[in-house]
Request: fold
Amino acid sequence: MYDAVVIGAGVAGCAVARELSRYKGSFLVVERALDVCEGTSKANSAIIHAGFDAEPGTMKARMNVKGNKMMDKLSEEMDIPFKRIGALVVCLSEDGLPRLRELYDRGIENGVGGLSLLSGDEARVLEPNLTDEVCGALLAETSGIVCPFELTLGLGESAAKNGVEFRFDTKVAGLKREGGCWTAATDKGDLLARTVVNAAGVYAGELHNMACESKLRITPRKGEYCLLDRTAGGHVSHTVFQLPGKLGKGVLVSPTVHGNLLVGPTAADVEDPETAATTAEGLREVAEKSAWAVKNVPMRQVITSFMGLRAHEDGDDFILGESAEGFFDAAGIESPGLTSAPAIGEYLARLIAEKLGLPVNDSFDPIRKGVPKVADMPTEERAELIRRDPRYGSIICRCEEVSEGEILDAVHGVLGAKTLDGVKRRTRAGMGRCQAGFCSPRVMEILSRELSLDLTDIRKSGKDSQIVLGRTRKEGE
Ligand SMILES: Cc1cc2nc3c(=O)[nH]c(=O)nc-3n(C[C@H](O)[C@H](O)[C@H](O)COP(=O)(O)OP(=O)(O)OC[C@H]3O[C@@H](n4cnc5c(N)ncnc54)[C@H](O)[C@@H]3O)c2cc1C
Reply:
């Protein structure tokens, strides 16, 4: 019997798990995919929002502002990249200026520091590539950017390091309250728990409705993006948002922590929570709308496109707390869910610890080390690492300069990578300009060797993403 079973290893589930491990108890994260960060947490804008957007008094506002403030310490403890680059919300027509002022006032009410209103010219001094149509802007200095994979992985690994168990490839299909505890039926057998945390992303409505009398409806809201090469990364230095206006909802243009440029997203409700495809019209919309605010976005430098699904709840707020006896929701976690995750984790873990009377875990260790990034190291440090282990000198991914040593660290880490995407998200092998064209066969060989798997058993991400289907010749033929 577990004290808590967390359903879903996205950023919310991993944050709850890490915070639970500050208490003594038995905790399990159960995830239907093969790895952490396979849901919405892998595909978003990666912005640590300042907190001026959400309605004052809502869970979204509270968690956003708190999560933002937690990010400096957390990123240091977990060895993950985070940059407070600041954001500009730009206004493209004079009649939008009162709305900009509203956002400023709302931010002040939510407790956001570092806000100021700028004229179009003042904004262009900060961002010379803003268009001439920009007639005013809200500057939010506390806004930042993060790597969503590393944030999720860091939280998950930190939880695992502090004793939380993880089970992948296990889908919760039913929930029943019996004899004062919960039984979670999975495709790998039943799990017994004193409490359950529902952090199932776009499926959180389904799980909530299995457990609670009050019903929730989550609508998957698709957002498409273009990711541009590092050569385009300096086109803006802040995250540039557009104030929704007469022309509709604009798209953002932002640097990423790894020096690329991100442009998007669109917003369209979809039926299918499994959809993963981008569309020609979505990507065209991204290109068109980005040009309203930022001049000459070098769209010829697009290296990939992707999409993510927001888990939009009808009430438009995060559903957080005990929704049925011993059943805790982290549902409706759409944007700013990435920003809010650390605060959501703290909030729910405290509620569970109080309910169960869990004592504090004095041996909780907040420090987690990520895979060393050879490409970012000063030459001397890099040389020393290679002297100690020459495999850090053997470059597997040319675009991102990822070595064999880093891939081995990723495979044999606390929650080791088992797939090509697992390696990619931990090391950046395959994230570069050639998008894994050169390195995937070599990464597959390493995975096959290290995990004692046949090449035909290596997956891109999910179980159905086989890459090599069979051999055309046997050895020696
Ligand atoms: C287009 C877009 C842009 C965004 N931009 C930002 C941003 O800039 N800043 C920000 O703060 N937030 C942003 N967000 C929001 C943020 O990405 C999400 O709020 C956050 O990632 C949600 O995390 P999660 O853990 O709730 O869900 P997920 O990451 O989806 O995790 C849920 C997990 O549950 C698993 N699961 C589901 N059902 C079951 C089951 N039955 N059994 C076992 N496992 C199950 C899934 O496989 C999945 O891994 C954006 C979202 C989108 C879509």
Remarks:
- Residues 7-13, 30-33, 38-41, 44-47, 49, 171-172, 199-201, 203, 223, 265, 308-310, 333-339 surround flavin-adenine dinucleotide (CB under 6 Å).
- The CA atoms of residues 10 and 38 lie 7 Å apart.
- The first strand starts at residue 2 and ends at 7.
- The chain has a mean pLDDT of 96.
